[in-house]
Each structure stands twice: as structure tokens, then as C-alpha cells.
Design brief:
It comes from Kitasatospora cystarginea. With about 375 residues, the chain is an alpha+beta fold. The chain has two domains: about 5-110 and about 350-370, Aminopeptidase (3-Layer(aba) Sandwich); about 110-140 and about 165-350, Aminopeptidase (3-Layer(aba) Sandwich), CATH 3.40.630. The protein is built from twelve helices and 16 strands. It has a nine-stranded mixed β-sheet, sandwiched between helices. Strands 1-2-3-4-5-16-8 form a seven-stranded mixed β-sheet, sandwiched between helices. A hairpin with a 2-residue loop joins strand 12 (about 265-275) and strand 13 (about 280-290). Helix 7 (about 195-205) crosses helix 10. The longest helix has 15 residues, at about 220-230. It starts with a strand and ends with a helix. The relative contact order is 0.17.
Length: about 375
Amino acid sequence: MSLRLRTITREEHLAFIASRPSASHMQVPAWGQVKSEWRHESLGWFDDTGELVGAGLVLYRQLPKVKRYLAYLPEGPVIDWFDRDLDRWLRPMLAHLKSQGAFSVKMGPPVVVRRWGATTIKEAIAGQEARRLRDIGPDWYEPRAFEVADRLRKAGWLQGEDGGAGFGDVQPRYVFQVPLAGRSLDDIQRGFNQLWRRNIKKAEKSGVEVVQGGYEHLKVFHQLYLVTAERDRFTPRPLGYFEQMWQALTAEDPDRMRLYIAYHEGEALAATTMLTVGEHVWYSYGASADHKREVKPSNAIQWRMMRDAYALGASLYDLRGISDTLDENDPLFGLIQFKVGTGGQAAEYLGEWDFPLNKLLHKALDLYMSRR
């Protein structure tokens, strides 16, 4: 059965996303407004009856001086990835994007390949034999994911290099998630390791108060974010980016984006943003002060967000990216160590894939990106 693809309205796109249990926060129409430096378009796939059966948010980034674009579908599109005839979804998409002036297409299939539970990871770290997640047997894997990868390769798609750490893609290939469905809050807290439970109690006894903020509190978040950027040596985004994100996402859905701030004795010590689409909740950005870390504001704020995600009916709380390193000497090891304490699972996604519509321009872009 063939599928027809066309540009869809914001309302059609939003209705389709709302009809599904979850989709990436980067595949909702408002994300196109967040990424204002890119042109955006909503695509829809229709079956023979005229029913909308798939959707995708495309971001177009123009090359300097020429009207040629990189077309990017972050963590999308939202289609039936396990369809044996995957080409009937992707072929019309490539034809449409080419007609829009795209020279290369990048997408991130939202397909989980493997999962490792916290116990498995902790045992591997203690054993000191495995250096990476991929070196240990998963607790769960999706056999159909390997079929999807095979179909993509045969159709001419190229898999992004991850450099072994899971951070080579634009979006992380490895993430850490805490399942919420079918569990009580007590079950979830019992899943935390001893250190996490102790830190949450310490924050409570110390008088750390976590409050939900609004647009006017983004400045408080941003001040802490700048401190974090200097400490962790990354280039921070300007306050205007977060203000734009808030306005675009909350206009689409009041609960799409939330802000949390942890105070101690009236002083803001940590702040986070949380994003929600359907039953999937993400810890998006985090920031913390350099001092008073002993009162454990970061653990307190995470526990508050998990409880609120649970109250919203979420089935999954997503702590986002990790490296797949299990080497205690690796500077990225602390990231997985902190998140493993929640008792959740590491998940490996299929990663990002490229389709060069113009091989010369695609190669030039690759060369440019490698030199950045």
C-alpha cells in the first residue's frame, strides 16, 4: 500500500502527536519556533483512506550564500519504523526534501536497540572488565531494530559516527531513563541506591525547598546555568533562547515545559527545565551553584521532577544523554554514575542517519563539521 506525503498544518501535526502515547519533544510543531535560526516544516504521511498515519518536523539549515539546505528531523520522523516496507515512508520524504532544496538529510529514528538495568551496570563497573556499555550483555534488546538498520543501509542511508562515546551524533545515542508505569512512588524511591536516598533525606533535613517557577524565574535559572557552563567548560546559550523556548512550548501546551528551582535559606542553588510530550517526560537542562553542594539540591530537584512526572501520568522519566563509558578514569564517567543511582535503565537508540542528496555538498559539510 502506497503512502502520500504532503506539508501539513500545525493543527494537523499537533493532533497527530496528541493521538500517540509519546513522541520526542523535538518533533512537536513548537520546536520549529524554538529553533528560529532554522526554517521549519511539518510533513504528514497519508494512507489510501486519507488518514494521517505519520508526521515529522523538518528543520532546514541554509548553506552560506546558496539556497541549499541541510534537512534535519531530530529524533524523528514519527512513523512506523518497523514496517517491512520502510522505503514507502522514506522515499517520498527524500523526494519532497530534495524539491525543497535539501542537499543532505539527517534523521534520528526513535528506535531503542538495547537496554541495561542499573544492577547490570553497577556489577560491570565493580568488575572493571568492561570499558563500555556495548561490552556487556544487555538486559533487553529489540531484534527488529537491527532489521531497521539493515533496511536503512540497503536504501543508501549512512550511519553517523559516534566516536565510541555516544556523543558524535547531534542528539545522544545513549540516554538514561527511569520507568514509572506500573510502579508506585515508593517503588521508584526504593529503586534508588543508598546514596541517592540518603541525599534526598539530607536535602529535606537541611531545609532545601524545590518550587515550580514561571517565565519570570528564567533569569534565576540562567544565572545558575552560566555558573555551570564555566565550571563544566561548555558554551552557554543566551537567556533569550530559554525565553523563546518557554513562550513557544507553553503556548502549545501549558505543561510542555516546566521550570524548577531548589532554594536553601532563600538562595537558589539548583534549577532545571522539564519537558513533557504525552507519557514521556524529559529532564532537559540542569544548572547548579558551586557552593552549598553538601545540602544536595540536585537530588532534591530530580526527585520533585520525578514525582511531578508521575502525577502527570508519565510512563517514563528521561534523564537524557550519557556516555557509554564504564571507565572510572574517563571524565564522562560521572554522568552515568550519577544517573545509575536512580535505579533506572541505560538505553541505546539507533543513532542518527544521513542521506546525501548531493554527495559533493554532503562531503563538504562533513569536512566542515569535522574541523569545528
